[in-house]
Automatic annotation (TrEMBL):
Pfam families, per the entry: FAD_binding_3
Keyword Oxidoreductase: yes
InterPro entries named in the record: FAD-bd, FAD/NAD-bd_sf, FAD_monoxygenase
Naturally occurring in which organism (per UniProt): Rhizopogon vinicolor AM-OR11-026
Name assigned to this protein: FAD/NAD(P)-binding domain-containing protein
Length: 465
């Protein structure tokens, strides 16, 4: 039971006010009701996010319902005509044919996740932050250390410090908490030769171009463009030449590299969100030189997809102020908690974005961990038990999804052994449906596994609660 008049049973510091950190603060407060003191430390001066779209997986929307935010999230999401069984998965095309591509397949499903802008999602989370939770801005955590009494001292870039009983690293892919966690961990727990492997993020060799623009822009230029009708994946292999200097090619050399583009409608169908991948697996694991995120010209973006079908060329012509992201991930960690510290979201398992699942996984971490911390049975003297349950329940699930996401990226670029390799006309002419073709079977298998995983990890959690 909550005891709002009593002193909080312990203090939790959440490092990072991103999607995971905000969801965690909301979950703890909803179920603990003042029993736990929450401080959020955010390095920026506001709660904000990149101007881009996001898809929130169905299973994460169930959590939004539990946290009392579903109606608002649904309200800002893109609506599609409802029917019992409509092709609501993305239309997947083979597009690396300059005269025109073709439909590869389309998944048929009863219900998809929700599509929205990241800012709309973050604004809703921000509005639901409990008044009792204190957010400290301009607090970039640099490191932490354990104190003899068991509490944790937090150190920030502005030379200030704070103390807490429990520290949650929700500070994203370049997590300072993860770095200190592995650099200071008992060497008996982790192979010491792998500390840097766990502490640092890993470049996948992929670059992502992202842009958003009003749907009318494309409607005027190309009224029948397939993108205006819903989510589309344009798959293929592209030609990249020396002018795409970020791949460090010798002058005049042209290479064929895997590429694909995801596009979908956000902001209630008024904006088109474009996410375009260019991948060089030979670069995977090498250090990425330069800024991980930078503004680029539209020409660079267009050039990378010069051999793609006209629908893609028109789509890219409309892109305003594209940015380029070097796609990094976190290597699979052997553990996500130690003593009174735990990692959630991208700090723990930043993954490729092919499945559109990273934010959903951060929300799931937050929900499970938040409920465990808030539980009446959890006290400061057994907090490590609650944190260990969080690890047991969540880490392998998130890592499984990260692997599925990586595999999906290979599939979209015709690079998965045993699947369609893009050399013939694949499933053209067939009505895409569940069970069609190796690629679809693989995708559906992934989806079934996701559902099984949810059931598996929810069972012990809910029997405990
Ligand atoms: C191109 C692309 C597309 C994507 N599309 C989707 C999608 O459609 N669906 C989906 O579910 N996921 C998607 N993702 C993944 C998703 O964006 C992330 O998984 C999600 O944002 C992770 O949330 P987080 O809260 O863990 O981390 P973040 O969102 O990175 O938040 C971390 C927060 O911590 C703060 N911070 C960082 N360091 C410190 C520090 N040292 N001290 C204090 N504060 C700090 C940051 O300022 C930030 O506010 C995509 C990712 C990419 C790259």
């Amino acid at each position: 039971m909550s005891s709002s008049s009593a002193a909080p049973k312990f203090r939790v510091a959440i490092c990072g006010a991103g999607i995971g950190g905000l969801a965690l603060a909301i979950a703890i407060e909803k179920f603990a009701q003042h029993d736990v003191q929450i401080n959020v430390y955010e390095s920026r001066d506001d709660i904000t996010t990149a101007g881009a779209g996001i898809s929130i997986a169905l299973r994460a929307t169930e959590i939004m319902r539990e946290l009392g935010m579903y109606e608002e999230i649904f309200g800002v999401s893109t609506k599609f005509p409802s029917s019992d069984l409509v092709p609501s998965g993305p239309l997947v095309r083979k597009s690396d044919i300059s005269e025109g591509g073709f439909k590869w397949f389309q998944r048929i499903t009863k219900q998809e996740g929700l599509l929205m802008t990241r800012q709309d999602l973050v604004d809703i989370l921000k509005q639901h932050l409990p008044a009792s939770c204190t957010v400290h801005f301009n607090k970039h955590l640099t490191t932490y250390n354990k104190q003899p009494a068991g509490s944790i001292a937090l150190h920030f870039a502005d030379d200030s410090a704070a103390t807490t009983d429990v520290l949650i690293g929700a500070d994203g892919i370049r997590s300072s908490v993860r770095k200190t966690f592995f650099e200071t961990i008992d060497r008996g727990l982790v192979n010491s030769s792998k500390i840097a492997h766990y502490a640092n993020a890993y470049w996948t060799g992929s670059l992502i171009y992202r842009a958003m623009f009003p749907v009318e822009k494309l409607s005027k230029m190309d009224p029948n463009n397939v993108v205006s009708k819903g989510s589309v994946l344009f798959c293929g292999k592209g030609k990249v030449n020396c002018r795409n200097h970020w791949f460090y090619l010798p002058p005049n050399e042209v290479i064929i590299i895997p590429q694909h583009i995801t596009s979908y409608l956000v902001s209630q169908g008024t904006l088109i969100n474009v996410v375009a991948y260019v991948s060089d697996k030979q670069k995977a694991g090498t250090p990425f030189e330069g800024h991980w995120v930078s503004d680029v010209s539209r020409e660079e973006f267009e050039e990378a997809f010069q051999n793609f079908e006209p629908a893609v060329k028109n789509l890219l012509k409309c892109c305003e102020n594209p940015t380029r992201w070097a796609l990094h991930v976190v290597n699979e960690l052997p553990l996500s908690t130690c003593d009174r510290v735990a990692l959630i979201g991208d700090a723990c398992h930043a993954m490729t974005s092919h499945l559109g699942a990273g934010a959903g996984q951060a929300i799931e971490d937050a929900f499970v961990l938040g409920r465990l911390l808030a539980h009446p049975l959890t006290r400061l003297d057994n907090i490590h038990v609650a944190l260990k349950i969080y690890q047991d329940v969540r880490l392998s699930v998130a890592q499984f999804i990260a692997r599925e996401s990586e595999d999906l990226g290979y599939m979209y670029e015709f690079n998965t052994p045993g699947y369609y390799d893009g050399t013939d006309r694949g499933n053209e002419g067939e009505e895409g449906s569940e069970g069609d073709g190796g690629a679809i079977a693989g995708w559906l298998k992934a989806e079934r596994k996701l559902q099984e995983s949810v059931t598996l990890y929810n069972a012990p959690l809910f029997s405990l609660l």
